[in-house]
Amino acid sequence: MDIATPLPDESTPIASDLGAGAPKTTDLVALGELLIDFTQAGTSPTGQALFERNPGGAPANVLVAAARLGLSTQFVGKVGADGLGDFLRATLEAEGVNTNGLLQDCEACTTLAFVEVDPNTGERSFTFARKPGADTLLHPDEVSLEALDTCRVLHVGSISLTNDPARSATMFAVREAADAGALISYDPNYRPALWPDAQTAIEEMTGPLGSADLLKLNHDEAHLVFGTADASEAANMALARGVRLVAITRGGEGAYLATHAAQVSVPACPSRSVDTTGAGDAFWGAVLAWLLHDRGVHTAADIDALGADDLTACANFACAAAACCVRGRGGMPAMPTRAQVEEQLAASSR
């Protein structure tokens, strides 16, 4: 077990010997939260809610989705030096995710999220045990430079921006990976309970936008960040800030994808929703897998070359992945395989 200990008297990571010239040996690295979702799973004989332990955390969910769809992946982050942290490490390793960048900290417990699910819609609400959680304690000097310098895409979310030192670690990682030639993927994943107020959330969540090549939001987050409920308007505002590809998920209404060359809207795949936890992560893992695995995208120029037909195929593939995900309970366990996504695509086209 790795016990995380900050380097003495150092606040700036040592420069990597690899950098921009390093061979890109990993398709996708994600940095951020890895936690336990205690997902509502029925009631006890006395009428009390029962909760099921599930591995979760949006960046980790994206990695597992991408790994099941054919990408090589690695996680960078921190969990507690406890049984739950051990469980999360073992879960990622069982999924083929490289955990060399995962640290376990004895100063805080693994973060917990209690997820209550509406039985009629599958929509969920969250209560967090994270004051602090181990995921918030990742320092910049603990981030694996080798992981950043050898990945094709670095994916981060906004949950790791809620507290320092994880905020500083996230922004350092974005700079290092971009300097090494990686594409930057960003999900401004909004959880109101983790922010003091909406304005603070907006200020912090917009920070990485100028560095992002690939951006995923749901319709509520697009409205929060860009101040408009119109998907095309929000996408154009993101593109104006330097983003190359924007995806806005719209629940039962499908998804909207946009680049500087084309914009498309696709419908959702019909699916019975049991639990929507992780649906957006399944969608985005599928987008990244389609881009890197199916289309061979490796550079910003490759993204710019995507036409409307490409975006439509990508969005349909991702919507099929989300439809598969919502049929199961829990986030990470419900991430689909390629065979399941292709089966869903075939069923939707009949």
Condensed summary:
The protein is an alpha/beta fold and 350 residues long.
Strand order of the largest sheet: 5-4-1-8-9-10-11-12-13
User: Main beta sheet: strand number and arrangement?
Assistant: 9 strands, mixed
Class by alpha and beta content: alpha/beta
Let me know the number of strands.
13
Low-confidence stretches: 1-16
First CA to last CA: what distance?
A: 50 Å
Q: Radius of gyration, rounded?
A: 19 Å
H/E topology pattern = EEEHEHEEEHEHEHEHHEEEHHHH
Q: Given the structure, what is the number of helices?
A: 11
> Which percent range describes the beta-strand content?
15-25%
- Mean pLDDT across every amino acid position: 91
User: Percent of residues in helical segments?
Assistant: 25-40%
What general outline do the C-alpha atoms trace?
globular
Describe the structure.
The protein is an alpha/beta fold. Helix content is 34%, strand content 24%. It contains eleven helices and 13 strands. It has helices at residues 58-68, 83-94, 145-149, 166-179, 198-205, 219-226, 231-240, 279-294, 300-304, 308-325, 338-348, and strands at residues 26-32, 35-43, 49-56, 73-80, 98-105, 112-117, 124-129, 151-157, 183-187, 214-218, 245-249, 255-259, 263-266. The strands form two sheets. It has a nine-stranded mixed beta sheet, sandwiched between helices. Strands 3-2-6-7 form a four-stranded mixed beta sheet. Helix 1 (58-68) packs across helix 8, helix 6 (219-226) packs across helix 7 and helix 8 (279-294) packs across helix 10 (308-325). The N and C termini lie far apart (50 Å).
